[in-house]
Write a structure and sequence with these properties.
It is built from 16 helices and 16 strands. It is an alpha/beta fold. It has three domains: 110 residues, ACT domain (Alpha-Beta Plaits, 2-Layer Sandwich), CATH 3.30.70; 75 residues, ACT domain (Alpha-Beta Plaits, 2-Layer Sandwich); 217 residues, Rossmann fold. A seven-stranded mixed sheet has the order 13-12-11-10-14-15-16, sandwiched between helices. It has a five-stranded antiparallel sheet with strand order 1-5-2-4-3, covered by helices on one side. Helix 7 runs antiparallel to helix 8. The longest helix is centred in the N-terminal third of the chain and has 15 residues.
C-alpha cells in the first residue's frame, strides 16, 4: 500500500456528497357481477378500487400477461392498444430472464372486454409474443404484516439451496411476494421480498437452513431505514484487512507464534480481550517504531473493500473504523480509503521504540459499542441506521446494538449472535444486503469513469 504521513486528527473531512419468479400480479376470480354501463364504466379507481370498500364490491379488471423473446417496442405497442380502449392502469410488472420477457399488466375492464382481448391478442401476434387475458376483480392483495427482505448468497447458489429456503418460508406460513437478482458475479445474490411472518422468527428458521445448505442468508425487516443514509462501522483486522496487525508487528519481535495463539483465543472469546491485548503488546517492547511503516506497507485489503467504501460514500453514507488494533495503522487507513472516523488503541512510543504499553483506555468490546454510539450521534443517525461489521468476540456488543450487525467471515460465536453472516471473501457483498445490485454498482462507477474491479472467484 502507498505510504502516507501519520494523521493527528481522528476525523477526516469528507468530500462533497455525490449526489422474477413470484411477481405475476394477483387477479381474483370474478365472484360478484355488477351492472357496467353508461359514462361511469371507467370511473377513476380512486373512487372504487380497494379491498376495504364498504360495499364489498370491487371493480372488474383484466390481467394481461405477455411472454416471449424480448425486443424493443413490446411494452409501448401493448400500451398503445390499451390507450385506444381507454382503460386505467392498476399495476404493471415486467421481468427479463435470458432475453425472455414476461410482462404483466392489470387494467380496468371495459364494457366490451372481449373486444379489448381480441385487440391485445392481435397486437401480441404481430410482435411474435404469446398473451393471456384473464378477467377478474380488484387489485393485488395488500402485503401482509411481517414484511422482510431475505437475501440469499451462494458461490455457487444451487437449486437445492433455493428449494430449502423457499420450503422453510412456506412452512412458516409466509409468502414470497417478489424475487430479484442482486448479483451474479463474483457471488450469486438473490433478494426475496417476504410477508406474513415475524422477521425475527424467519431469521431463526433460515439461519439453521443457511448452515445446512452452505449459503449466507440475511433477513432484514422491510423498512425505510434500508434506503436512508446510514453509518457503516467496521472492525479492521481480519475484516477491512486480511490478517492481524499485531501479528505482523510480532514478527519483528520474534514472538509471532505466541502472539498469534493468544490473538486467536481472544477472538474466539476464550480470553479477556484487554488482558490478552496488554499481554501481547508487552511482547512488542523494543520493536522500532519504523516497523509500523513496514507493516502498513504489507497490509492487504479485503477484496471489495475499496468498492464498498467508494460506492457508499457516493450515496451519502459515513464510515468509521473501530478497532482493537492500533491507531498508528487505522488512522492511516482512514486517510487512504477516505473514511470519516477512526478509533483504536495507541501504542506508546518513546525515543522511536515501542515500549510494550498502550496509552489511554483500551478499545475493547465495550469500547467498540461506545464508539459506535458516539459516531452515530456525531453523524446524526439513530443506532438503528448503523451497519456494524466485525469478525471477533470483541465485536459482539457493537454488532448487537447496530440496526444491522454483520458477522464477516467470523468466529462461530460471533456468527451465532449476529443478525446475519457473510462467509464469502468479498467485502462488497455487503452492498447487496443494502439493496444495491451489482449492475447499479458498475453503472455508478462507469458514470465516474471507473471500471468496477472484478476479483477472481474463490
Amino acid at each position: 500500500m502507498r505510504r502516507t504521513l501519520p494523521v493527528r486528527h481522528r476525523q477526516v473531512t469528507p468530500p462533497a456528497r455525490v449526489s422474477a419468479v413470484d411477481t405475476t400480479p394477483y387477479a381474483e376470480r370474478l365472484t360478484v357481477r355488477t351492472p357496467v354501463d353508461g359514462p361511469g364504466v371507467l370511473a377513476s379507481l380512486r373512487c372504487v378500487m380497494g379491498n376495504d370498500l364498504q360495499s364489498g364490491v370491487r371493480p372488474e379488471t383484466l390481467l394481461i400477461t405477455v411472454s416471449g423473446t424480448d425486443r424493443p417496442g413490446v411494452t409501448s405497442a401493448m400500451f398503445e392498444t390499451l390507450r385506444r380502449a381507454g382503460v386505467e392502469v392498476v399495476d404493471i410488472e415486467q421481468i427479463v430472464l435470458r432475453r425472455r420477457l414476461v410482462l404483466g399488466i392489470l387494467v380496468t375492464a371495459p364494457r366490451d372486454w372481449k373486444k379489448l382481448r381480441d385487440a391485445v391478442q392481435a397486437t401480441a401476434a404481430g410482435l411474435g409474443m404469446g398473451v393471456e387475458v384473464e378477467r377478474g376483480t380488484g387489485d393485488n392483495r395488500g402485503r401482509r404484516e411481517g414484511r422482510s427482505h431475505v437475501t440469499v448468497i451462494g458461490t455457487p447458489l444451487k437449486a437445492s439451496a433455493m428449494a430449502a429456503v423457499a420450503g422453510r418460508i412456506a412452512d412458516s406460513g409466509a409468502n414470497i411476494d417478489r424475487i430479484e437478482r442482486m448479483a451474479r458475479y463474483p457471488v450469486t445474490a438473490i433478494d426475496l421480498h417476504v410477508s406474513g411472518v415475524d422477521p425475527e422468527r424467519l431469521r431463526t428458521l433460515l439461519s439453521a437452513e443457511a448452515a445446512a445448505q452452505g449459503v449466507d442468508i440475511a433477513v432484514q425487516p422491510s423498512s425505510l431505514l434500508r434506503r436512508a443514509m446510514r453509518l457503516i462501522v467496521m472492525d479492521v483486522d481480519s475484516t477491512l484487512i486480511q490478517g492481524e496487525v499485531i501479528e505482523l508487528l510480532a514478527a519483528h519481535s520474534g514472538h509471532l507464534d505466541r502472539v498469534a495463539d493468544v490473538t486467536d483465543r481472544a477472538m474466539r472469546g476464550e480470553l479477556d480481550f484487554e488482558q490478552s491485548l496488554r499481554e501481547r503488546v508487552a511482547l512488542l517492547r523494543g520493536v522500532p517504531a519504523s516497523a509500523l511503516d513496514e507493516v502498513y506497507d504489507e497490509l492487504v485489503l479485503a477484496p471489495g473493500a475499496r468498492t464498498l467504501v467508494r460506492i457508499l460514500r457516493r450515496l451519502g453514507y459515513r464510515f468509521a473504523l473501530v478497532s482493537g488494533g492500533f491507531s498508528q495503522i487505522t488512522d492511516r487507513l482512514a486517510v487512504d480509503l477516505g473514511i470519516h472516523y477512526s478509533r483504536a488503541n495507541e501504542l506508546e512510543i518513546v525515543d522511536g521504540v515501542l515500549t510494550g504499553a498502550i496509552r489511554g483506555p483500551v478499545v475493547d468490546r465495550i469500547g467498540k459499542a461506545e464508539a459506535l454510539r458516539h459516531f452515530a450521534a456525531e453523524v446524526g443517525v439513530p443506532v438503528e441506521a448503523v451497519v456494524a461489521i466485525g469478525d471477533g468476540a470483541n465485536d459482539l456488543d457493537m454488532l448487537e446494538i447496530a440496526g444491522l450487525g454483520i458477522a464477516y467471515n467470523a468466529k462461530p460465536l460471533v456468527q451465532e449472535a449476529a443478525d446475519t453472516t457473510v462467509n464469502v471473501p468479498y467485502l462488497d457483498t455487503i452492498l447487496y444486503l443494502l439493496g444495491i445490485s451489482r449492475e447499479e454498482i458498475e453503472a455508478l462507477d462507469l458514470a465516474h469513469g471507473l471500471v468496477t474491479p472484478a476479483p477472481p472467484v474463490r
